[in-house]
Every structure is written in C-alpha cells, then in structure tokens.
Amino acid sequence: MTSSYLYASARTPFGRFGGALADVRPDDLAATALSGVLAKVPGLDPARIDDVVWGCANQAGEDNRNVGRMAVLLAGLPVGVPATTVNRLCGSSLDAAMIGSRTIETGDADVVVVGGVESMTRAPWVLPKPARAYPAGNVTAVSTTLGWRLVNDRMPAVWTVSLGESNEHLAERFSISRERQDEFAARSHQLADAAWAAGFYDDLTVPVEGVELTRDESVRPGSSADRLAGLKASFRTNGTITAGNASPLNDGASALVLGSESAGLGVDPVARIAGRGVHALAPQEFGFAPVEAAEKALARAGITWAEVSAVELNEAFAVQSLACLDAWKIDPAIVNAQGGAIAIGHPLGASGARVLGTLAKRLVESGERYGVAAICIGVGQGLAVVLENVTEGVS
Fold first, then answer.
1. Cβ atoms of residues 41 and 77 within 8 Å
2. What is the model's pLDDT at position 1?
3. Handedness of CA 158, 278, 67, 21 (dihedral sign)
4. Residue-wise pLDDT tens digits, 145-199
5. Three-state SS for 57?
6. Is 376 a residue of the active site?
7. How many Cβ atoms sit within 10 Å of the Cβ of residue 305?
8. Distances, alpha carbon 125 to alpha carbons 58, 99, 166, 347, in Å
9. What is the 3-class SS of 79-123, one letter each residue?
C-alpha cells in the first residue's frame, strides 16, 4: 500500500447564523471552497481528479441530491470528475478525508479532493408526509438546523435528549465547572482573534463572491470569562452550558487536496495521513467519543501522546473539549492554539476539514512532526486523524 498526503487546504470564512453568508446557497459555498483549494495546486489538471468526497450533515434542502457533485459542476470542473456526499453529522468532512486517504492508499485513486459544507441558516423546515390522504389535523414544521428531528418512537428517551442536555450530563460525570468552561471559551475567542490579527488564517481562507466577509464572523475579540459568566444557562435552570461556552450555529465550507506521493501535482505535500480512528458510545455520550478515536488513530500511526505537538479538537462544547483533554492528560497549550470552534464557528459538515487543514498549517509553521485532529459527532461517535509533517526541517 502507498501513503496518502495532504497537499493543500482552503475554506471560506465561517459566517454566523443569519449573518454575512445567509444569502449564499450551500452548493455555492461548496463550489467556492472547491475552487479555492484547487487554485493552490495550479499544476493539477482538474480532469486528473479521481474523485471528490464531500461531507454535509443536513442534506434536507439546497444541499440535497449529492451536494458534492453539485459543487463539482458549479465550480466548472470537467463533467467527468465524479463526486459523492457522505454524512457522519459533525464529522462528515473529516470522514470524507479519511475515505479519500484510504482510497489513495489502496491504489484506487491518485488524487482525491475532499471537504464539506453546511448552511445552518438555510436549513429548511420539514413536514412529515401524512399517513392517509386529506388529514384534518395540524402538522408541525420541524427545523433541520441542528439536533434530532422526526425521532423514531422506538428510540429510548435517554438517547434522544438534546445535545446540550447530553453535555450537562458530561459536566456532572466529570465535575467540570461552569468557571472552567467559561475560561476555555474565552481562550478560544482570544486565540482566534490573535490568529486572525497575526495573519495565520489569511492563506487558509478564500473569499465568497458578493460577500464582504474577511474573517470568521463569530469571533468576539473582547471575550472574557467574566463576561461569559453573566450569560444564562441554556438547557437547565442551574446548568453550566450557555450560548457563550458552546459552539454557535454557522455557515461555511472547507476543502483539501489529497494525493499519493507520486501524484505529480507541482507542489510538495505538507503532511502524511499517518493514522485514523473511529469510535462510538451511547448517543448521549457523544462528546467523549473522540477520546478513544484518538487513541486508535495514535496506535495505528505507531506513536504515543508524548510525540504529539499539536492538537485540533473541534470545540462543540467547552465541557466536552475539557473532558477529552483531561482524559488524554495532555498539555492544554498545544490544543487549538489558533482558536477553536467556539469562536471560529461550527458549520457541521465543514468542520472536520477545517480542523485538519488548520492542524497541517500549525505543524508546518512550528516544524514539529505529529499532530492530532479530532471531532465529536452527534448520536455517539468520534473521529480522529494523525498527521505527520513531511516538510523540510521537521524536528
């Protein structure tokens, strides 16, 4: 088997719910990210792309009917470039990267473009079809923006609690205080703001046509733990989770170019896909699933946490991020050093490729060898990928 490598990363700035990207269709966002990442590999003839694997969590509205293929067509790629869309909820685009890397390693492809998209603003309301013609009663429209909808009655109630309530259970289980969560959330905003100011994200993001958005819209530069402490709990009267220490609702897209070492793309690879891991728990325990997913990825890479210099963990909630860090027993300073999803945003299908692209750049800038990207996934799952820096001067 050959190895698979990451050659280039690009994403749109992430817009807040109802914000700057609200008028942009998800398939257009996807096409923007796809075109943006290919512009970074000018020597690649698009006709050489063996497949496009795209992530999307919703797929109930304008992102239906294989939004990955729609992105290929809207981006003006040759009609002979195939594409598929995968759905592992919040982990969809990281799953796409894992699928793409496996395809390269088995020799079934030489170049695969992967990524994901989500417009949580434009997610539609849906109505169930009636069981018989001409029903006389009312029907409730259900929002598809986030969480369970049209739940099967056979599902145990403990599995179908809200994402927030699931994480309140996690806070109780691991005795993670509101204060720790607010401090973690404030750090995310402060680091993201500093990273944007320093230009870290400038070459990772591409503009969206017709939109004046030059940085992630949810970042709050003046955020502090004291300010966050004044917010009301969102899921329990005396709870710990607020709108300030959880990721917001967002719109955006991200993309990566993967290839074999001999792909001949005209640019050097920046990182090798060294290990992958997937794990599942009870649905209400989803926030803790990255713990074992990362352990599996490390084992497959043949390394331990002692060799890891950078971690990108998607911050769905501050509490689940802290639970994972505590379990891994790693230095918090190496985690999300350029900010995380609490500040940057979490457009579900786009987040996995976003954390992987960010991780690769962190490793290149630091010259360190190994990093881990991980993400928790609703309904009890987690994914993780280990990257190995293959640029010159790696320590």
1. no
2. 82
3. positive
4. 999 889 999 999 999 999 999 999 999 999 999 999 999 999 999 999 999 999 9
5. coil
6. yes
7. 16
8. 11, 30, 24, 18
9. CCCCEEEECCHHHHHHHHHHHHHHHHHCCCCCEEEEEEEEECCCC
- Supply the Cα-derived Rg of the chain in whole angstroms: 20
Q: Other CB atoms closer than 10 Å to residue 151's CB: what's the count?
A: 12
Give dist(CA 70, CA 157) in Å, integer: 37
b or e along 356-374 (b: 16 or more beta carbons within 10 Å of the residue's beta carbon)? bbbbbbbbbebebbbbbbb
Average pLDDT, the chain: 97
List of residues 6+ apart from 290 with CB closer than 8 A: 279, 313, 324, 374, 375, 376, 382, 383, 384
Nearest Cα to Cα of residue 382 among 108, 70, 90, 139: 90
Q: Which of 128, 195, 136 is nearest to 340 (CA)?
A: 195
- In this predicted structure, what is the pLDDT of residue 215? 97
| C-alpha distances out from residue 233 to 225, 230, 244, Å | 14, 9, 9
Helix axes of 318-328 and 178-198: crossing angle, nearest 10 degrees: 90
The backbone torsions φ and ψ at residue 88, rounded to the nearest 5 degrees and listed phi first, read: -125, 45
Q: How far, in Å, CA of 214 to CA of 208, rounded?
A: 9
The catalytic position among 90, 189, 279, 324 is 90
For 45, the token pair is 């003839």
CB 249 within 8 A of CB 146: yes
Cite the DSSP H helix spans in the chain.
26-38, 67-74, 92-105, 163-174, 178-198, 225-228, 290-301, 318-328, 341-344, 351-366
Does 395 have pLDDT greater than 90?
no
Q: Which domains does the chain possess? A: 4-123+247-388 (3.40.47.10)
Amino acid at 70: M
- Tens digit of pLDDT for each residue in 43-69? 999 999 999 999 999 999 999 999 999
Catalytic-labelled residue, pool 56, 279, 324, 346: 346
Q: Please confirm, yes or no, whether 56 is among the known catalytic residues.
A: no
Type of residue numbered 1: M
290-308 pLDDT per residue, tens: 999 999 999 999 999 999 9
3-state secondary structure at position 368: coil
Catalytic pick from 56, 189, 279, 376? Answer: 376
Query: pTM of the entire structure?
Result: 0.96
**Cα separation, 83 vs 36, whole angstroms:** 17
